[in-house]
Amino acid sequence: MGFAEDFLPRDEIPTPLQEPLAQAWQRLQESLEQADNLASINKQELPSESWQALSNSRRRALARVVSISTFALDTLARYPNWLAELDAVGELDEAPAADTLRQWLDETLEGAADEEAMHKVVRQFRRARMLGIVWRDLNRKQGMEMWDTAAAVSRLAEVCLDAALGWLEAFLAPRWGYPQVRNDGSSQRLVILGMGKLGAGELNLSSDIDLIFAFPEKGETQGGRKSLDHQEYFTKLGQRLITALDAVTADGFAFRVDMRLRPLGDGGPLVGSFAMLSSYYQDQGREWERYAMLKARPVAGDRDAGAELLAGLRPFVYRKYLDFGAIESLRELKGMINREVRRRGMQSNIKLGPGGIREVEFVVQAFQLIRGGRDTELQVTSLKTALKRLPALGLLPQEVVDELLPDYAFLRDLEHAIQALEDRQTQTLPVEEHDRERVALALDHDGWPSLMAQLDEVRERVRGHFDAVIADPEDDIDDTGASGEGLSLAQWRLVWRGELDQEEAQALLAQAGFEDPAKSLKRLHGLYHSRQVQSMQRIGFERLDALMPLLLDALSESQIPDLALARVLPLIEAVLRRTAYLALLRENPQALEHLMHLCGPSPWIAEQLARYPLLLDELLTPETLYTPADKTRLADELRQSLNRIPEDDEEAQLEALRVFKHAQVLHVAASDIAGTRHLMKVSDYLTYIAEVILDAVLAMAWKNVTRKYGTPEGLAAVGEPAFLIVGYGKLGGIELGYRSDLDLVFLHDSDGKGSTDGPRSIDTPVFFTRLGQRIIHLLTAVTPAGSLYEVDMRLRPSGNAGLLVTSLDGFIDYQRQHAWTWEHQALVRARVVAGDPALAERFSALRGDILAQARDEKTLRDEVVKMRHKMREHLAGKQDGDTFDLKHDPGGMVDIEFLCQYAVLSLAHETPALLNYSDNSRILETLAEAGHLSDDEAKRLREAYLAYRSRVHRAALTGEPAKGSKRDFEEHRQAVITLWQRFLEPDAA
Questions:
Q1: Which residue ranges run through the membrane (predicted)?
Q2: What pTM value is reported for the model?
């Protein structure tokens, strides 16, 4: 068969292919002639005839494959009939499914009588499949990508592992039997975890497969001639499995196996029980092993048991908090790689060299290690999947991912082209001109210079993104400090460590803007020499020691560095045993800036951060830190957070609720301090947070109680709580503050008859009482993240002596027949904050009916005034000096609230619009619109109310009492007192 005449016209061969194809074709011709001779003797179809039957497109594809890949050329020269076989089953165009591969291999293995025969089958099967993979990779159909090739290789490795393991188990069973069943009665097999690129499902063309072997429980084998301890049995089985894939025979090898990622590496046992592995990773697991376990995935053997094992190891891999200490470990690991690259002159290694494959992997895995415990979407083994999820989580800009994905694919394509040459595991660029041109051809470049130009561009981009994520933060700070004008980090380090004499250290602090340098220096030295710091473990102290110069540099930028230092140091002390937070601050200098900006003016924020250090995470995203979410976004964020947690893990859900609440309140406080939110908006946002949490808590409580007791009769078809949570006071009035508790009343829509339909049936009234108790428990229970809210239920019918949960009909009857005037005053500020919408409409209508009742004017006024005087006696401040209690003194906030409540109760029957609102500001606006107040009077009351509330809010943030100077508020006080006397105490005017 001639080159041009009989197979492929020369003018159909691209010029770069002609010379390598000519060399390849001579060898193929010789192989085909030998195969034809053998086939002729055996009276079989001649292989050359099947080659001649190939279409022109197949011939061109063949020319490309054998010109580029020596592995493919060697394989076809050795097995020329495989080309027709692969073509017949469509394997040259599409990758076979895993089930198909497994069926093919199992059928072939049935004829293997011993391990030598099994080895031959597995190797030839792998080689044939790899020929198809290389063919498809070099002749990609439209839409095919590197990821498809990587997935096909991974799938092949898994099938070979599983089939070889199954064959070995059956082959060895007569001798040793099978493992003893587990304690739960289920069978027990070897668990094979794929690590690295196999675990990710992204193997390259000639990759080692990194494995860890495990077995569930100890015991002894049964049913064989000799019983073995499980440890011994699984070790022997694992050794034979490795040989089945890794040993080099006349047929080559199947897959090189690397077991060094197991506990203690080559010095550790080949196989470990689940208990042993769990104990090892909990007690001895190192940072690089967390990095390795990111990719762990059950790939063969008992996959369900493998998933069980990995679920137990997940807390080791993914921390609950943001673990910026992982960046230090990755930085150190990359430093070791860089040193090795330089020592061995490996700059041309596209995996380990600068801007190479490993740097893209480090970028993605840094985010997985740091945030995977919180953002569970990142708990995936695939680099591609994880990288694509980073923008939605706000961790990388979309444009960065849009560069990294194709750049990584290019690097992996180049890696595949290099490995396709000889089926050899290498990531080093070839040096031979002939090989270089073949690699360039594989990637459709005109020549080597063109390919190298693209590689240089890709490496530069990758290195830039790698540095942005992994680089040491001190590299970004000028030696003269963050501002470029202050002290250097080296000077701050000397101050922190006490390595300067006292006068010199104080002079440097004074130079940096500290007003009382002696006191601040004493604070720093007190921390440095404290028992807590001196007893820290090495890694913890190193993190603290690296952070403190950066912290002091950030403090020097504060307007009040002395005060900011005093407020921040308790936070540092609080996290000395949770050093991941020290790493977080050290790795994110901008977080330090926000910390100074918030803690300087607000000891309350400093106190919250010290109590709940996990809130430090919020400092990393300034775009949300100073922009509280509206109710829709809050509900969506909370729903997403809870959806990441198993529905039956109520403890974790509670923790997530508390973290959510503290974080969202911090956002509101940050925007408040920054002056980006009006007072009314601050209360709106705080109220939204409470409402969203109450919605979630009601849903959780309903699921918990119905799971235990079933649903009350008549409500089973509803599927949702026929239940209301009514907010009173500041919650009802949409005026929540930072320290506000929740005044709540629980109502249900039931006649109180019947019982629940669950296995533990209880009477309907008991069911709703249990539901109310559960809600209160969820709101007030203390977890490591604190509690959600303090709850006050005293405004329910009959107060503490009444039922915890009341039917709506019973509530209305009480309000009509038995309620005191002060309880109707409270009802003015009542509104539904969670529960069934239809039931909420009924409540609102009935509330309106009660408040709109015509009342005797004098009686109403006397009772309101009497209640107000009673409150003043118990709560108002002393009426001396210049101090003014903003809430309770005459002319204060409560007077305005009573005025509004009195107005609604006395005027709603003729002005129904007053029933529309529960907040004082809009009640005052409605009074003006209806002519009951002049515009000026309503404006003066609103201004006074807002001024008082603003000072109270500020006092909560600064830790000051809710008081003011009578002189400062004289105009507001007089306006309120004048209207109070006009409407409620005309005889005193």
A1: none
A2: 0.73
